[in-house]
Amino acid sequence: MPAAVTTATPSATKRVVVLVSGAGSNLHALLERPCNGEVVRVISDQPGAGGLALARARNIDAVAVDRRQYADRSVWDAALREVVAEAAAELVVLAGFMRILSGAFISRWPTLNVHPSLLPAFPGAHAVADALRHGVKITGATVHFVVEQVDAGPIVAQESVAVRANDTTKTLHARIKTVEHRLLPECVALFCADRLAVDGRQVRILP
Ligand code: GRF
After folding, report:
1. Which of 28, 115, 134, 181 is labelled catalytic?
2. Which of 38, 62, 101, 200 is deepest in the core (most CB within 10 A)?
3. Phi-psi bin for 139: left (phi > 0), alpha (psi -120 to 50), beta?
4. What pLDDT shows up at residue 4?
5. d(C-alpha 55, C-alpha 104), whole Å
6. Below-50 pLDDT ranges, the chain
7. What is the tens place of the pLDDT at every residue in 173-194?
8. Four-point Cα dihedral 161, 163, 164, 168, nearest 10
9. Domains of the chain by range and CATH?
């Protein structure tokens, strides 16, 4: 289950930890938009992730927790939890993080994920290619709270993107990312302003 949306002792500025595996264009979008949150640490499972370099260039603490250095997933997940806890995170954001987190992780921090499809359609790591292959005419982007089941948590926001006849995975993903770059920062800002209320599968945006 997603953790309670408001922290026990809400602080004026929420401490946000961002997890990335790749280029980090969503991280970049997040850093560009001011909100009641501060990205205090960026963590990656890939030491060479562009997102880590992006964080370092902005003097944001950047840490690699390389999955290959750990015997199995649970030991790696425990190490990851330690690094997130050290940063005193109040919100974790998965911005292109390509690994599955444990129940112990998810129950400890409210965690938002951005996914390149209109969930529940096309969960998983190949959402854009799967949508194209299926022949849908409309796909999009989803921001949701993370639960143990992959890409299945309560949905915070969604926006559609029309598929064009000549689209490739690359062109379609690029247009979806343009939407993600707006949607994810908006959702993080709402969380940081204590404006998201989760009730089962329903996420309400408070006035
Ligand atoms: C995004 O499309 C996101 O939805 C998916 O991974 C991609 C990450 O892209 N989970 P970037 O690293 O933020 O550019």
Report:
1. 115
2. 101
3. beta
4. 44
5. 26
6. 1-9
7. 999 999 999 999 999 999 999 9
8. 110
9. 14-205 (3.40.50.170)
